Amino acid sequence: MIDALMIHKSQLTCVVESSNCQEALTLLEENHLRCAPVLDATSTLYRGNIYRYHIYQYLAQHPDADLSQIPVTHFLKNTTRVVHTNESMFQLFFAMTDLPYVAVLDAQNAFLGIIKHNAMLNFLAQAWVMDKAGFVLEVHTLGGTGELAKISKIINKYCDISTAVTLEETAYDTGARILFVLPHYLDQVLFNRLIRDLERKQYKLKAYNMK
After folding, report:
1. What 8-state DSSP symbol labels residue 43?
2. What angle do CA 130, 179, 126 make, to 5 degrees?
3. Is the pLDDT at 93 greater than 90, yes or no?
């Protein structure tokens, strides 16, 4: 999975750790990059990321600074935010969070490439078959045992379930709920009956027409 989403390092613009900030900034600007991986001289070891923003921020605060005298290692970020090729999509998801990309290492911690944030989102959209979705049903659960099976049984009277995602209660004041992606062939009449059936069971829900 990790391999399939990765952009190999041979296709990337990387910064050598011995570079200074002026060289890094020139490289980033010429390639229209927000940031780039910083590697050792052999392009084997990942040191972290260098962001264009942090260099400009420093320059704004120190207008007389000579960037050619400042090593890129002074601004290294995300040094431990990595995934390994044998890790799961779940681990990738939490390693990525707010990053534009995450570095990929092999079992010996050698740098192989990166996975971009939009590649992960595209994978999730395909995995949830959103291109074939007819409706998305967000059901707020009641907290009972076997609730996923109970709700699924009701839905299966009307259609198949393309995908389902369970979400637990969070600190953002959102309760536990299940998202069901339902197939495109389900028509509005049957979908309305399904909603009424679930509401009779006291489920609170939101429905989204994806057609």
Report:
1. S
2. 25
3. no
